[in-house]
Each structure stands twice: as structure tokens, then as C-alpha cells.
Amino acid sequence: MDILVIGGGGREHAIVRKLRESPKVGKLYCLPGNGGISRDAVCAPVGAMDKEGVLAFAKERRVDFVFVAPDDPLGAGMVDFLEGAGLPCFGPNAKAAEIESSKVFSKNLMKKYGIPTADYQVFTQPGAALGYIKQQGKYPVVIKADGLALGKGVVIAQDEAEAAAALKSMMEDRIFGESGSQVVVEEFLTGPEATVLAFTDGKALYPMASSMDHKQAYDGDKGPNTGGMGTVSPNPAYTEDMARRCMEEIFMPTMAAMNAEGRRFKGCLYFGLMLTPDGPKVIEYNCRFGDPETQVVLPRLETDLVDIITAVAEERLSGIHIQWSEKACACVVMASGGYPGSYPKGLEIAGLDEDGQVSGMPEATVFHAGTKLVDGKFCTNGGRVLGVTALGDTLEEALEKAYGAVGSISFEGAMYRKDIGRRKLS
Ligand code: AMP
Ligand code: GLY
Predict the structure, then answer these.
(1) Which terminus has fewer CB within 10 Å in the chain: N or C?
(2) Residue numbers in the chain where pLDDT is lower than 50
(3) Closest C-alpha to 356, from 41, 90, 27, 37
């Protein structure tokens, strides 16, 4: 099978590398890909949102299957478009992808079907939202833009002034464009966070190995929110008992709810969970693999990924047995100085061999997130640059190997957290 992956970040690199392990895979393509991915798949400068361009490429290369990884093409109907042209895909159609692309839709879905989540209200006017927040008088309070905002559309306001500022920038200044036409104001939840990705074809749902993201930019969970600065799998707070509860109270009810709404979800459904003292609650759904969660979850997958994604597309997932490695996995993101704000690009990365890996350290894998090749050299080309990843018999061993490899990579201004996987889970 010749497979085309859409996207060009660390997640897509992890997907491409896992697909390469399959004896069933012939040619691998990735659009647009990046410098590191081009070592493992044929990349071309076709944007992930360019439906016509993707279809033309897939036809020309006679691709058999398309894996659409990022949220924006999924939300914009890439799968509907390609399937309409006769190409089988992994990923939800636009109606199902709305579980991520509209927070108002997903909150209302949870309320309607009794799926545990933070209490909330939806507002279309900043004045009304602020009035409600003042009347509640409970801080911190969480304010979320309705639509996609590159993971930056959530503000945890500590007081009235911060809440007012957040509402103004989202709803009046429209810093996230139309995404700010509606906001969700919700209760602040506490507890360890966990991410659980699940394969589902709308009939069966199989949770993958659990993981934990580290969203804040700096050590000790300080600083601004990012797309994710590092991950570990399994998530130490996600016990077997918790997994059973989540399956019964959250995962299966979500699949059933989407079916009942006529929005059968096929692909990878991402559950962002808060394990609160009152039980697990949904913080957010995503309609796709997480980034950088994928980088620690897929290395632990022992079943052929091609068997799973084709089964999902053909709605016969219940016949597949999915096996996970007992090993732990850790990923440390190396980011550009200044991320998540503005940062330079085009800086040469030292310490990578011609495959984009750290030579002499086969125990670590470097997933490329924002790199490009310039005259045969890897250079920075994004906020998150590399996801340095390792498996180990224990989390400690995985972290040691990942940080060992991080130590031999450098570029000007490189920034990474030193405390991935070391969070206290009280
Ligand atoms: P989201 O983009 O919805 O995942 O939100 C980003 C981050 O904000 C989450 O990973 C949480 O750490 C935090 N967050 C979101 N909603 C809440 C909430 N209701 N209570 C506490 N923290 C939250
Ligand atoms: N790491 C969080 C996300 O992919 O949205």
C-alpha cells in the first residue's frame, strides 16, 4: 500500500515512522512534511489545507490511502473531499470533526448526553459574559474561544480584570478571528490531567496507552500555554480503575452520542481529561492524534498501524486486537527561543546526522516538528523544532535517554523544559 500522510509536524513524523515499520507499506508520502520527515517519506510543498493540491498529488502518485493528521484540514472537510473522490482515508469527516472545532458544540453534546465535564455557560456578548462572571464571583474562571485557536484560545483568569481583558481580546479585538464570536465560560477544575487517544470506527472504540502533556512553556508549569513542551506515557495518574471509569462514563458514551447526533466519528478521538476529586471529567475533545502525545504513544504500539487504520476506514475495527508495549516513553520538545511568542527561523541545528537523528544514540528517536533542510543541513523552521523521544523499562530510564540525546543537540536560543515527567501528582 502506498500511503500519504497530511501534515508536517512532530506528530506526522511519528506517524510516518510507525507506518514505515509495516511490511504492508510500499511508498510513503507526506504533504507538506518537513526536513526530518523527508528522510522517511517523500515530501512535497503542497499545503495541508490545499484539497485540490492534495487530491492531484494523490492521483498522480496513485496513492492507496490517506492519513489526515491535523485538525484544520479535518475541520475543513479534507476527508469528505478525498473520500468523495474515491480515496479511502483515516480521519473524521467535517461533521464529526466539529467535536474539536467548536467548543460550544462539544460542551452542549456533553450536557445533552450526561458526559462529565466542567459546568459552563455560552455567551455571544462580552458584557453578558462578564456580568455572569461577576455574579458568580468564583476565581480562577476559565474562558474559551469557541473555535480553533492553535491551542491558545483558553484563558484561566485569576480575577475580574483578567477575565475582562480576555473577553475583550477574544470577542472585541478578535485576536482569534471568528473563533471569538462565541465564548464558553466554565468552572475551573483541579486534579492531574491525562490524555487518552482512542481508535474508533463508530462501532468499536479502543483506547490507546495513556499519556501526559506539559503545556506550559517553562519548568514548574510556569509561563504561557504552548502546543505542548513534552509528554510521557503511560500517565502515572491514570490507574486501571480510572481507565475502567473513563471507558464507562466518558469514552463509550461519547461514541454513542456522536452516533445519536448523526455524526459517526471515525479516526482518532482525543480525550483531554481532568482526574478531579469528583471523578474524571472531559476538558476537551480533539478530533485527531495529539501533538506531542503521538510521539510517546505510537512508539509503544506493537500492532501493525496499517491494519488498524484500514480497519477503522472499513468499519471493522472490532475484529482487530491491539497490543501495547509495557515500556515507558518520554518526549522532550526542543523549541525556538521566544516560543510561544515570536522566534527566529533558519538557525542551523548542530548534533544531528544526515538522517536527522543523533548518531551513536540509537536508543533515542528525534521526531522533527519544525525543521527544513538547507544545503543538506537541518535548520529550525518553527516554534517547536524537535521532539526527542526514548523508550525505557521505566519512565526514569526513558527520561534519562531522552535528555541524554537532548544534551548533544543544540541551536542558538534552544529552549526545553528540564522537568518533563517529574510533575508531582498530588
Ligand atoms: P484546552 O485547550 O481546552 O485543552 O485547555 C488548555 C489547558 O487549559 C488544559 O490543558 C488545562 O490545563 C487548562 N484548562 C482548560 N479547561 C480547564 C478547566 N475547566 N479547569 C482547569 N483548567 C482548565
Ligand atoms: N498536545 C495537545 C494537542 O495536541 O492538542
Answers:
(1) C
(2) none
(3) 37
